[in-house]
Task: inverse folding
């Protein structure tokens, strides 16, 4: 486990350079990037998704919510049908999301995951059999993209590579913080310790604005 | 046989995650322990570097081996996959986005080479996370769903007035009350329609 971008202090890769350190993946695995380029030029779907994601990012940077990103991305890729896999606890959210997607011209259907009530299905999915689970119904619908709307971690991990369509995530389910998992980091002791050190070194806002004009 | 052995642990885990209201990080830890995973991989967005740092600290404290890869690794140019010039340096909304593209395939390949058993996505964009999930060998799950406008809380758009306004399900703040709407002239209504059209075109 040598690759550690998390401890990097400078992030030179944003400008295309590399850190000369033992944790930088560009130092440890230089051959991987050639393989990645090959995949981009060979696999047409991957290249198209990669390109359209970059365009969507530039079009709606900071202005668009994630749902708008998903809608615009589907339009760019030419997707017509979306399949939503949702937790029964988030029934109302799923209802509203479906109606918003339908209004924006995407034919969408939602499928409730019932793994909590049927652990034998979960065990079957562990072994790679998807008969009788909600994934089978999803695949029968034949969506162009599967949207994860609040599946718990186990269900999401079990559905890995179950469907042929590309998957994306709209809501990461988190019952403790009402589907906002980042909050549990911002309020943690580790975050407070780090931010105390970090923001002490920063200049106060007043000086900064004066220097910037 | 293996299924039957694992079934009680799965039942216990599914009950715990639903009833005892764990947060997502605790859920990851419990799920990895249940499945016997030791090696976790983090695929992170460069904008969530601070969150990644804290996650690394937490997971190391819990005794996991962690590898983390940022999205800009490899220095791939955006023009390589054919992004037009007008989407390169500055975004349409006026922020700098740079000319280096995210590289989800390389992220997946690096984590595959590190032999991770569970890959966690920390805030990848909408299309890039599909690419990452496609090429990752270990099961890939989302830990944080990135939402730049709402501070990584994508569900918030479904609950409030401004979410409805954004998707055109209610009239905007100028025409919010019924009295205003009744008093609005035809030209005003036309103006609303024009504004909505312009916003959608962007």
Result:
């Amino acid at each position: 486990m040598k690759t550690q971008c998390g401890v990097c202090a400078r992030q030179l890769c944003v400008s295309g350079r590399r850190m000369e350190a033992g944790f930088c993946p560009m130092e440890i695995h230089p051959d991987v990037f050639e393989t990645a380029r090959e995949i981009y030029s060979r696999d047409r779907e991957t290249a198209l998704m990669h390109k359209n994601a970059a365009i969507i990012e530039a079009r709606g940077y900071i202005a668009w919510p994630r749902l708008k990103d998903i809608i615009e991305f589907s339009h760019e890729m030419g997707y017509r049908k979306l399949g939503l896999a949702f937790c029964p606890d988030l029934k109302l959210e799923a209802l509203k999301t479906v109606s918003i997607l339908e209004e924006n011209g995407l034919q969408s259907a939602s499928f409730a995951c019932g793994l909590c009530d049927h652990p034998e299905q979960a065990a079957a999915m562990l072994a790679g059999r998807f008969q009788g689970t909600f994934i089978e119904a999803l695949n029968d619908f034949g969506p162009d993209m599967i949207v994860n709307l609040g599946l718990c971690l186990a269900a999401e991990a079990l559905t890995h590579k179950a469907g042929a369509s590309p998957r994306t995530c709209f809501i990461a389910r988190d019952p403790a913080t009402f589907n906002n998992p980042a909050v549990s980091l911002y309020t943690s002791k580790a975050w407070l310790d780090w931010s105390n050190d970090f923001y002490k070194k920063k200049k106060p806002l007043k000086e900064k604005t004066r220097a910037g004009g | 046989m293996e299924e039957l052995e694992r079934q009680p642990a799965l039942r216990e885990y599914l009950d715990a995650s639903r009833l005892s209201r764990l947060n997502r990080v605790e859920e990851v830890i419990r799920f990895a322990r249940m499945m016997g995973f030791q090696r976790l991989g983090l695929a992170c967005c460069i904008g969530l570097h601070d969150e990644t740092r804290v996650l690394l600290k937490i997971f190391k404290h819990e005794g996991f081996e962690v590898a983390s890869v940022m999205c800009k690794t490899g220095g791939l140019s955006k023009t390589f996959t054919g992004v037009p010039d007008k989407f390169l340096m500055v975004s349409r909304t006026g922020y700098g986005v740079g000319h280096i593209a995210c590289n989800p395939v390389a992220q997946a390949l690096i984590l595959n080479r590190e032999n991770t058993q569970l890959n966690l996505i920390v805030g990848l964009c909408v299309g890039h996370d599909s690419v990452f999930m496609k090429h990752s060998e270990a099961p890939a799950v989302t830990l944080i769903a990135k939402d730049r406008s709402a501070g990584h809380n994508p569900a918030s758009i479904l609950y409030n007035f401004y979410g409805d306004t954004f998707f055109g399900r209610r009239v905007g703040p100028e025409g919010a009350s019924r009295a205003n709407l009744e008093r609005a002239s035809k030209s005003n209504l036309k103006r609303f329609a024009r504004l909505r059209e312009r916003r959608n075109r962007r």
User: Anything to note?
Assistant: The longest helix of chain B spans residues 2-19. Strands of chain B lie at 39-44, 65-70, 118-122, 140-144. Residues 15-153 of chain B form a domain with the Rossmann fold fold (CATH 3.40.50.1860). DSSP finds eight helices and four strands in chain B.
